[in-house]
Amino acid sequence: MDLAPTKSKSSSIIDCDFHQTLKSFEDLKPYLPRVWWPRLCAPEATLPITIFKPIPLSRRDASPGKGLPPGSDPQYAIEDALNRYNISKAVLTGSLLTVSAHNNPDYAAAIASAFNDYTLDHWIPTDDRFLASILVATQDPVLAAREIDRLGSHPKVVQVLLPVGSREPFGQRRFYPIYEAAVRNNLVVAIHGGGEGDGINPPISAVGQPTTNFERHNILAIHHMSQLNSIVCEGVFETFPTLKVIFIEGGLAWVPHLMWRMDKNFRGMRNEVPWLKKKPSEYIIEHCRFTTQPIEEPDNHELIQMLSMMRAEKTVLFATDYPHWDNDSPTFVLNKLPGELRRRIAYENAAELYELNHSHVEKEGVSR
């Protein structure tokens, strides 16, 4: 794949997982009620993290220098990633993905709201290629829905962002206000890895807390599987037939397995879910999308087989996960794919999902 700058749509790339972060939590103060300011500098009071990660989450070589965290300077990120790889659009997914693990729902909602405003003020104006997510705290779905309605009409906002870690599965009806608000604002719902085993959330694995981050990283997909299973089986897509859900940073190889198992069990146990009108796999292919990173790395013919099994020409989107240590560059992932599939995954699937060619560029201003 030729990564030299070009205006040809066939070589365009949409990055569906691009992490921006704060220089420090002090950056949130202008957007946060003063009552919460003391927590920004209190140890363990801001966002919970429970497992030691000996490899830093973000690459040191992605730091803009002067001691700043990687991903904290938009101008550096533009040169280091967007321009280097000819990325046409980058969907910002942030760095506060443990917000839904905090024990205080009001504080969590305030932090999410402040981070959204910070992103819209400090990142979105720097480059037309950046697109925004609305981060919400899922502890209180009513507050989350208010945040979606507050920012949902912004012309650069394309999705609602939920961390995958939660106390209850996302298919349950208490989360419906989030889906109602997303549909009302014509936004995708994105479920991104984060918050698993942290704070108020259940353990990382079904059998308790693992000893090492290596163990945790090997089973990242179980949370995405659990949320997808819940959303489909609880009939969310029957209740919200226009809703689209993207699963970010959970890998891909589990998707065919889960579709097969769900369809098999549906034949024998469908009386438990009479609201489902179609096979589970049909809802998944129609309503769900999955990002490449962290893609499994079998032999290339096996990779292509796996992608074929999950209808990747429709369901898979490209993501770098910049600037994390295990991020994937376009030269690594996309060069493994045949031409038509490469175009679909690199650009076209995401352009269709986010309606980039029409509706979102026609949105009018936002009240903040």
From TrEMBL:
Residues 14-356 form the Amidohydrolase-related domain. GO terms for molecular function: carboxy-lyase activity; hydrolase activity. Signal peptide: none annotated. One of its GO terms (biological process) is secondary metabolic process. The keyword Lyase applies. Keywords: Lyase. InterPro entries: ACMSD, Amidohydro-rel, Metal_Hydrolase. This is Amidohydrolase-related domain-containing protein. The lineage of its organism: Bacteria, Bacillati, Bacillota, Bacilli, Bacillales.
